[in-house]
Amino acid sequence: MLGWALLAGGLAVLATAVRIAPRGTRALAQGAAMLAIALGGLLLLHRPGSPLPGHGMRRWHQP
């Protein structure tokens, strides 16, 4: 749930950051949005029981 919230929130901030006039403030908002999107994506790729997001033992199943 947190992953989806970060992903949606980051996309919303990224989409609305184009309306910010000062260049430095816009860059800061876009950078924070990209960090939130990346963190949300990593949380969505996380496998249970693994120390790192997206890494860990894969279970093999007979096809």
Give structural attributes.
63 residues, mainly alpha, elongated
Your description of this structure?
The chain is an all-alpha fold and 63 residues long. The protein is built from two helices and no strands. The chain has helices at residues 2-16, 23-45. Helix 1 packs antiparallel against helix 2 (23-45). The chain is elongated, with a radius of gyration of 16 Å. The two termini are 31 Å apart. The model has no long low-confidence stretch (mean pLDDT 84).
Please sum up the structure shown.
With 63 residues, the chain is mainly alpha-helical.
Q: Please give the number of β-strands.
A: 0
Low-pLDDT regions = none
Estimated radius of gyration? 16 Å
Strand content: under 5%
Helix content: 55-70%
Can you summarize the main beta sheet? Answer: none
* Coarse shape: elongated
Question: How would you describe the oligomerization state of the chains in this entry?
Answer: single chain
**What string, H for helix and E for strand, traces the elements in order?**
HH
Number of H- or I-type helical stretches: 2
Secondary-structure topology with pairs:
Layout: H1 2-16, H2 23-45
